[in-house]
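Hi, here's the filled form for the chain we discussed.

Project: internal
Contact: R.S.
Residues: 331
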Amino acid sequence: MNEWPVVEVHLDDLVMAESIRRDGESPEHIEVLAAVPDDLPPIIVHRASMRPIDGNHRIRAARLRGATTITARFFEGDDTEAFILAVQLNVLHGLPLSLADRKRAAERIVLSHPQWSDRRVASLSGISPGTVAVIRHAAAGHAGAADSRIGQDGRVRPIDASTGRKRARELLLQDPTLSLRQVARLATISPETVRDVRNRLRREADPRMSPGGDLTQRDSVSASLTAPPNSEVIVRSLTSDPALRTSEVGRQVLRMLMLHNTVTSDWDGIVANVPLHCNEVVADLARQLATRWADLAGQAGAGAMPAVGAGTMPAARAGTMPAGRSMPRTA
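And the returned structure, exactly as it came back:
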């Protein structure tokens, strides 16, 4: 949107339509905006109809200040696209939409775009995918005929995932090192569905869960699908090490390990819920932090790190924060 030119629009040329907010604009918020001495961001206007897509409060504030014009950017698109943009913008900034408003918006999007996945609608309307699923079910008479849906990544996935599950099973048996997202892409199912398939394979491959508990031909599958040593268990054991617990640097190391072990326990769930507009920023930060962790791993593996308690771990290279402060959340 920033590439759209900013123009001056006469307030009298705008066509004020029904707000996406059930209760309309907030008088208190309008007064706050009217008192702001600096210029407010340009409003977004649907060029074809001259209806404001985003900025009703700013328009009311401009009138309250006695202005006759307001800065704006024009949106080129149809009415449905204009509504979706209005919802997205009002979820991201300004006076937040109420939960009821977001649910109403999600229902309208489900009806206009039944092929969109629950996660995609949820990311636009600011509610959970589960809530979208309930809304979709309630509107099934109008929007339940599609046999596939388009996800946030633009990929089409079938609603009936049985074929995809079968393909995912075959892929995991052929190459257990494939990531959830790699298998999901090849089998055209979600990463969470792949996770479930992988977990079922592990249970099948575990001899303790087979009749009689005897070792079978599944052992090779079990070995290849077995997860690496549980990092949570390892971190817990480190917390009982006095050499770490009794020094400030040691406690800092433990805080870092505990935080990242918790955050990274479900990569796919985290990635799937990062708003689309934040993807590149989060990815860039993740790469920066990964480089710092790799640097730390290289020093530790080579024995180059000073003994805990003997000095201060170099914060710039280890990617740490000063003592007493927690690491920033990047996802």
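Let me know if anything looks off before we file it.
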